[in-house]
Amino acid sequence: RITVTFNINNSIPPSVDDDEPQEGQKPDEQEPDLTSTPNFVVEVIKDDTKQTLVLDCHYPEDEVGHEGEEESDIFTIREVSFQPTGESDWKDTNYTLNTDSLDWALYDHLMDFLADRGVDNTFADELIELSTALEHQEYIKFLEDLKSFVKCQ
Question: 78-126: per-residue pLDDT in tens?
């Protein structure tokens, strides 16, 4: 069984206000679309084991939105660990492997392992779309709640 969890909080990269509108370009055409790229966790659970393989993934800032380039992964695995199956809170004492120190061949096998289970670039693109829609929806609700709160005397 595969479970993917993510949190939309702090998933919109900060905007850069350095750019001035180009000549003949309307100011609102300059604004890029705000895209939510949340970190996400993939849990792989097998019925015959007492452990869950946990892969902590994220979207590197320099990889998002580079369409038309050669096929590369738009997300990376940051950390890998085993956690007890059925535990709601993960144990900080369980060994967690940071993939920065991982052999590239093993890292590629882990990415293939995820892809074989449907967690690939297509999935990652769809997650961005879902997360962006949810983030925008929550943002609008927040603004409405803020307006109601401020108006209240």
Answer: 999 999 887 777 777 889 999 998 999 999 999 999 999 999 999 999 9
Q: Residues with Cβ < 8 Å from 60, sequence gap 6 or more?
A: 75, 76
**pTM exceeds cut of 0.85:** no
Q: Which burial class, exposed, middle or buried, applies to 13 when counting CB atoms under 10 A from its CB (0-12, 13-18, 19+)?
A: middle
Domain that holds residue 88: 36-151
How much of the chain is in helix, strand and coil states, percent to nearest 5? 35, 20, 45
What is the separation, in whole angstroms, between the first and last Cα of the chain?
51
Is residue 67 in some structural domain?
yes
Sequence-separated (6 or more) residues with CB below 8 Å from residue 131: 6, 8, 11, 36, 37, 38
Per-residue pLDDT tens digits for 23-56: 555 555 555 678 999 999 999 999 888 899 999 9
Residue 57 sits in a domain whose CATH number is 3.10.280.10
The angle formed by the CA atoms of residues 121, 123 and 125, to the nearest 5 degrees, is 70
Total count of domains within the chain? 1
